[in-house]
Structure formats: C-alpha cells, structure tokens
Amino acid sequence: MKRRAAGVFIGVLLSTLTPPAFAQEEKPKNPFWEGNENIGLGLFHSVSLAPFPSLRSGMVTRLPSSLAQNGLELRVTQDWATMLSTQDAWLLDYDVLRSNIGFSWGVTDRLRLDVDLESGSRTSGYLDTFIISFHRTFDLSLGNRRQYSGHSQRIEIQPPDGSPRIVVDEHDQQPFAQSIVATAQYALVRGDEAVPEVSASFSLRRVLSSGDLSLGSPVDVGASLSIAKGFDPVYLYAGGSVSWYGQEDFFGLTLRSLEWSGIFGIEIRPLPWFSITGQYLITSGGVDSLDDLSRPSHEITAGFKWKLGRAYVLETAVLENIINPYNTPDFGVHFSLVIRW
Question: Which of 57, 81, 210, 262 would staple 49 via disulfide (CB 3.0–4.6 Å)?
Fold first, then answer.
C-alpha cells in the first residue's frame, strides 16, 4: 500500500513539473528575427558614403523585413569612412561620419512604418593612421596617401563651367547634412519555400539642416523595390531605389536632382545567433561633366551580425571601394545595434 501511494505521489509530482506535450512543441507567436523563412538577420542598414550622395543621405533601399504585427524596432547606427581622391579637377581629402537613429512599427505583418533621424559631418582624416599602419604591416603600396596623411579636411573642385574653384576646409559649418525620413514599407508578396518575399517602400525626407547645400526641394521623395529569398542557412537579397531632391547646389555646383541606387547581398547564418554578411551598393554619380565623380560609386560592405539574447542584434562591418576609387570612400567601418520588442 505504501509502495503504491509513493508511486502515485511521484507520478503527480512529475506531471506538475513537466509541461504537456503540446506546450513543449508550441513556438513563440511572434519570435524576433525568426518569423520569416526568407529573411535572416538581414543586410546592414548602411547608405552610400561617396562624396555627393553622403551630402543628402537617408534614402535607402528598404529590404524585406521580418518585423511582425505590433512589433517595435529601434536602430542606432554609426558609419565612419575616409575619402581620398585626387585628380586635376578636384582634391577630396576628409573623413565622413554618418549617424542614424531609427524607429519602426509593424502595423501588420505586411505594413511597416519607419521614422529615421539622419545626420552627417566631415572631420579630418583620422582613419589615415590605421590605413597607413595596415598597408605597412602587409607591405602594401601606399600610393599618394603618405603625401596627404595628417592633412586637415579639404575639398577642392573645379566646376566644369569654368567658374572659380570651390574650396571647402575644416572651417566649414558642421554638420553638413541633417534630415528626418518617414517611410511606409509594404510586403507585396509574402514568400514561402518556393516564392521569395517582395517588398516596396515610399519615403519622404525633410531637411533639418542643409549644411553645405543650398536651394533644393522642401520635401524629398524616394521609393524602393526589393526581394529576399532564403535557402537555409543562406539568404539572398536584392533591391533598388530612386530618389528626387529637387534643384540643389554645392557652393554653386549644381547636383543631379535624381539619384538611383542598387544593392545586392548574401547572408550566411551557420548559427541562429550569428551570421556572416556581404553586400554591394552601387549609387549614381551626383554631378554632370566631372569625369569619375559623374560615374556611379561602388561600395562593398562585409562583416558579422550577432544576436544577443532574444531581442538584440549587433552589427560590425568594414567598407572597401571597388571599380571606381575616385568616387568611392577608401575604407570605412560600420556599427549598429538593433533592438526589438
């Protein structure tokens, strides 16, 4: 009798401590970064740091998002790159800092609303020290970088119309760009194992501080179309955007009103909390009749993403130029923290 009573007691105790089978298999209703099989931790939230696009940054291709209905997201992003380009018609020697604080709300599983505060400034070339040390360590050619190392920031451009040479140095006002961007993003196609995720966005940008630019439109307009497809543990992303800024001048130099960009990326996620990501960003040139400065910039960003706990993702990456070094930053670093709840 005692043995039977002990068995009953042990059975009751185990049933109390062990959840039902259906509860063990139940998945979180809206798991962060896990709710869409075609989207991993995503590409880096970065913009072009090329000379003219960086003057009015903020309009980016909005890639498909895994943010679920009623989900909230906060992004804090910092990009830092160095620019050195010398030709007969120009000298560009400076560092560019880009900062972004963004907030998103998942209205539904398809609709996402974003608000971003975007700002940028120029500094002297402090990244030169790191670049020179890296080249010397691996016995790489420094080119003309040694000649300009330690110089204060400086921009000289000879306008194609023959007007006086534009000269901007460290005494120029800072920051040179600051704006607020509001975006609505909608999933046109909800993907599955066979069909990719397709997303479209529409953005409005209001300049808060024009800095080096004058004139322009009171409100800038942008739109993007993007696609994502997952082949666990590999995710592929692609998209393009077009933006209109009105008639803007950089110290009398007329900028192109229309800017386009394209982005292509791959994410390899060997572990649920870690991914290796590489992306290629091409952005149209910002002016007419200035040789390489009128041609697209080509920026490669590669790095890692760490999922810290359930709601945090940390991004670290480096940027390198390819194809057109005269209109693309030499080297840069990217950091970002994304929080969801």
Answer: 81
What tokens were used for 262? 């394209």
Cis peptide before 233 (omega within 30 of 0): yes
Token digits of residue 138: 């691996």
DSSP bridge pairs for 263? 239, 281
- The CATH superfamily of 31-340 is monomeric porin ompg (2.40.160.40)
Residue 179 makes CB contacts below 8 A (sequence gap 6+) with: 56, 58, 117, 118, 119, 205, 206, 207, 208, 209, 220
Each residue's pLDDT tens digit, 24-36: 444 444 467 787 8
125 vs 309, higher pLDDT: 309
Q: How far apart are CA 228 and CA 39, in angstroms?
A: 6
- 296 contacts 325 by C-beta, under 8 angstroms: no
The rounded distance, in Å, linking the Cα atoms of 298 and 293 is: 12
Phi, psi at 208, each rounded to 5°: -95, -35
Placement of tokens 């009128």 in the chain:
294
Please report, for the chain, the start and end positions of each structural domain, with discontinuous segments joined by +. 31-340
Overall average pLDDT of the 315-323 stretch: 90
**Does residue 59 contact residue 284 with C-beta atoms inside 8 Å?**
no
Q: Residue 279 in contact with residue 301, Cβ under 8 Å?
A: yes
Quick one: average pLDDT of 238-242?
A: 97
